[in-house]
Structure formats: C-alpha cells, structure tokens
Amino acid sequence: MRARNLGLLLAASLVPTMAKAAQAPFIGNWTLDAARSRLPDQMTVENKGGKTYAFDFAGDVETIVVNGTDQKGEGGTLLSVKPQAPDTWIVQRKQGGRLLLRATWKLSKDGRTLTDYFRETAAAGTPLSMDYVYRRMGAGSGFAGDWRSVKETMNSPYRLEVKAFRGDGLAFAMVAGKVTRNVRFDGGDYPDAGPNASPSGTSSVRRLDALTLVITAKHDGKPILTEDVGLSPDLKTLTITQHIPGKDQPNVLVFKRA
Questions:
Q1: Do residues 103 and 91 make contact, with C-beta atoms less than 8 angstroms apart?
Q2: Sequence-ordered list of residues with C-beta below 8 angstroms from that of 2, at least 6 positions apart, any chain
C-alpha cells in the first residue's frame, strides 16, 4: 500500500513539472518581424446620396454626413470625416472627449488606390502608427467603393511578452496595446487584463501539440477572434495567425525572440 501511495505521489508531482516544461518554450520577449508579417484590412464606403456615406470597417455599418462634425458611431464613439481636399479625407474617432484615432486618406489620381496614414492613440501605452495601401475592388468612384489592402507598413515597435500565469498557464501581453490574454490549459475562460482590456473580454486555450496552441478570445461570451499560435522547431520564431469573423484574410504576426 505504501509503495502504491508513493507511486501516486510521484505521478502527481510530475504533473506541474510536465505542464511547466510544455509552457516554457513560449515564455520570453518577442519582437515583431514587420517584413514577414501581414495585417490585411478591408473596408467598404458607400455614397448614400449627397454628403451622406455609410462606412463598413468590418463591423457595424456607420452612416454619417461627411462634413467634419462628430456624429454617432459604433460602440458609443463619435466618428467624423472631413473632406480636406478633393483627394484627401481626415477620419477621426473619439470617445469620452478623447481622440482614439486619426487617419488621413489620400486617393490616387486614377482613383484606384487609397493610402491610409493611420494613427491610433490608446488610453495607455504606445501610440500605434501604420500606413495602409488599399486597392479598389470592383466599381465605385471617389472614396466610395470596396477596398482591400495590398500593403501594410507597421511604423511602431510592436512587442509581445509571454509569461507564466498561475503556475501552469500563459499570459500573452501586448506591450503597446496594454492588453494581456491570460489562459490556462483547463479549457476555462479567463479575464483579460491591462489598462486597455475590455471588462467583458476573456480568453481560453487548447494545445494541439508541444509547439502549437489555439487561443479563442471572447467578448461578452461571444467569440471574436481565434489565434493559431505556433513555435518554430528551433524555438526562435513565434507565429500568430489571427482569424477574425468578417475578414476575408487572417492577420499573420511573425515574432522573433528578443
């Protein structure tokens, strides 16, 4: 009996050790390899008549008058679009009196290409600066049309920190965005953390093999994002492929171990 109990105790003691060994390869500081990453975007702008336009940024459709004034947008935000010139629009989004983002849209002379100089200011953390180049898909004129990005340039440093969470879990901390996804390998949903995390945001994880994970992010219990997380065999490259409902193409973030 004593030998049997000893065997059970030894087996039990190996469980956390094995769990920590499995999580260890992911732990570390990671830096985005912008040249190997893709953050494809899509948006649709529809002229509803006169200066009224409907904007679909792969979310709820927002219909406003393009005159530079703040108007009701999705999620309790205020959206404004100012025609600065025939080929230039200034797009801004605010919430609670604070500027969330400012984007300068420039239309090419032939009307087939739109360049978006996108600048996002988080409540806490490093501002995000990206330049998008969109190509018109199908018919349309001016800024109205169905647009798909063909090039995305990340101007801001983008770092990811992966740490242990509650012993056998993992915490994926996006440094610039000040959001951390906390997960454990028990199938449960754990609250996201950080100054910019949604109060109702949670994450869970599944392990496919020693170097591959699948993370599901939820908002109010509804899945909003699935991430395939894979480590290279030499443990020097971490690739996160983000699948977002409503987007034709996934984001592919390639990180190098810092």
A1: yes
A2: none
Residue-wise pLDDT tens for the chain (258 aa)? 344 333 333 333 334 444 455 568 999 999 999 999 999 999 999 999 999 999 999 778 999 999 999 999 998 999 999 999 999 999 999 999 899 999 999 999 999 999 999 999 865 556 789 999 999 999 999 999 999 999 999 998 889 999 999 988 999 998 877 899 999 999 999 999 998 888 999 999 999 999 999 999 999 999 999 999 999 999 999 999 999 887 888 999 999 999
What are the structural domains of the chain?
19-38+157-257 (2.40.128.20), 42-154 (no CATH)
What are phi and psi for residue 157, nearest 5 degrees? -65, 140
pTM for the whole structure = 0.76
